[in-house]
Amino acid sequence: MNKTLIVAIETYLRQVKSWSFIMLVLSPFILLAISLGIGYTSATSSSDQQRIAVISEQPALRKEFIKANKDDVKASVTTNAAAQKSVDNNKLTGYLVLSADKNKVTGVYHSSDSIGTGMKTRVNVFLAQTQQQLNLANAKLSSKQMKSLAVQPAFKEKIKANHGGANLAKIISFWVLVFMIYMILITYSSVTAQEIASEKGTKVMEIIFSSTKASKYFVGKILGVFGVILTQIVVYIVGGYGFFQIAMHLDNIKSLIADNQSLVDGIIKNMLGINLLFVFLGVIIYTIISAFSGALVAKAEDAPKAAQPAIYLSMIAFFLTMPFQSNSDALIAKVLSYVPFFSSYFMPMRIINDNASGMEIGISLVILIASILLLTWYIGQIYEGLILQTDDTSFWKRLRRGLAYQK
Amino acid sequence: MLTINHLHKQFGSVTALSDVSFDVPDNQITGLIGQNGSGKSTTFHSILNFLRYGGEIRWNGQPIKEADFDSIGYLPEERSLMPKLTIEQQIVYLARLKSKPAKEIRPQIDGWLKKFAVKGKKTDKIKDLSKGNQQKVQLIVTLIHHPKLIILDEPFSGLDPVNADLLKQAILEARDQGAAIIFSSHDMANVEAVCDRLVMLRTGDVVLNGTIREVRDQFGKSEIYVTTDWTAEQLEQLPHVIKVQNIRGKRFLLRLDDPEKGPEVFDQLTDGKYIEEFSQQPPTLDEIFRMKAGISHE
């Protein structure tokens, strides 16, 4: 097997099998599961108290009501006495006694509190429909008359495109995206710098460099870290989709999403596609810089310090995007959307705000990919010199010497 | 065969190697000796291409290329492995970087652990092993892919005599399988015990180069070990004896100004009578090392 691939797989497996990675990936899902679980438990535990019993001497009538309102009725209670007892014990909110003779349908609600608005509406709708059926039957109408009585009035809703919703989608997408890049960067800058620096501390690198070229090793290392980042993104997308599906089974979340469907669609559209590519490439270029910084430390304990240049650069880019969030066609924003390290924040912002053409996006992508390749090639060339130098001089001296190293 | 010609290396204003030339033939063990800072590690780093250098280093007549890395086994001076890996993961990973498939290496691991008497299971993490056992695992890593060129930087440092013997055995086995081996050491007894050839560096220059016998013979048989009833003062009166050293009890070491005069000393000392010991020898490697190293301080 190709040695670059061997290094990449080893790096990848070591990272994904570590507890820190497993916790990093699982923690959002654990939090989501806990909050969904709490929501579900509180919903189910209180549901009995909010339900009613339905009592009727006409089983068909009772059955029809239960069929139409099965979530609101505790069907196991069938007698007046049992229903009254449950209400007294606070196990039911009340009970409805239904009866019907030849001309009239009657419903009597028994409770210590007045009936809730929602329940009252549902009971009234049911009684009105049943009475209607009874009236039609009593009127002995022909089928033609029945048909003409069944005609309903027409009501249509015509709503103009909602600009407010689209703007909200843009704002939410922007914040989610920049925070996502920022959080992933902070995490992986430290992970990468630590990974590289920890090897510099040990002299196992001399053994490795007697087995493969430093540039191949460096590329393998970076590929391994990319694999880890990609795994995290994929787990988040798949897991997020899974949770979305589960959440859609919960009535209140389902109605919340249905009420804001265009907003949700807008955010998902902004998050996926080309923007995700910019996020991924942005994380890659920052990871390379972190690896470079990691290689410059004198000992493993300095690794958190080594990640700082990448983290500071990322912070500058992150905070620079803020003033341009609602002004993304400003000249500075346009320029920065082509500059590597900044373009991963600025170009997605322009894309979300619909002021970047396909050509502009393409040019920015090409510059970013070319920078990644050039940087990888250059660091690969000087990597051996950086890793094998172990003298405890100042950071800047080591940086200067590292940059001057050419074999 | 590894050939080094006119190797030169400068670190800023410091000359680490000035004009180093020697061969490391196949099927032989070459000891590289010298004081700290004499250029041994720099020579190894040059062979391994970790440094830019002047001169020429060739392996079987060709410059060392990436493809040759798989034939090299290297043990660095400071011991280090990846602490979070298990013994098996560590050995397999580094062997795979030498282009040895995992399925070929895995079945061999138990045998190697037994051979080096490593205390621990192959599923134990490196960080849980004692320093000595980590060192043994590192030696296994250096040798398990059956390299043709073996470079060992201070392999005996930190090893007790029992483990040093295990290592000597492994080095001799690798030599008998045809490998060209070069190792550095400060322990002249180990060098004398396993080396076929010897190269000594002093501040970046080669001051000794040849087989052990050739090197020792360069200095002539200028030493005589005797066991006698004579006193040190009496021995000092003998012709051509320039120094007398009492080793223990009646045993003395006499140093001659001219090795050719040994028979004359013998005649005078024995006077035709029995003597328990009279052995004329060249200086030991340890003495040669001290002699050669000492010159730099003069």
UniProtKB/TrEMBL annotation, chain A:
Membrane-crossing residue ranges in chain numbering: 20-41, 168-188, 222-244, 276-300, 306-324, 361-380
Keyword Isomerase: no
Location, primary (coarse class): membrane
ABC-2 type transporter transmembrane domain sequence ranges: 19-377
Localization (cell): Cell membrane
Keyword Transmembrane: yes
GO CC annotation terms, alphabetical: plasma membrane
The entry's keywords: Cell membrane, Membrane, Transmembrane, Transmembrane helix
Membrane topology value: Multi-pass membrane protein
GO molecular function: ABC-type transporter activity
Protein name, UniProt field: Na+ ABC transporter permease
Species for this entry: Lentilactobacillus sunkii DSM 19904
Automatic annotation (TrEMBL), chain B:
Pfam family, one: DrrA1-3_C
Protein species of origin: Lentilactobacillus sunkii DSM 19904
Keyword annotations of the record: ATP-binding, Nucleotide-binding, Transport
Protein name in the entry: Fe(3+)-transporting ATPase
Residue ranges of domain ABC transporter in the record: 2-228
GO MF annotation terms: ATP binding; ATP hydrolysis activity
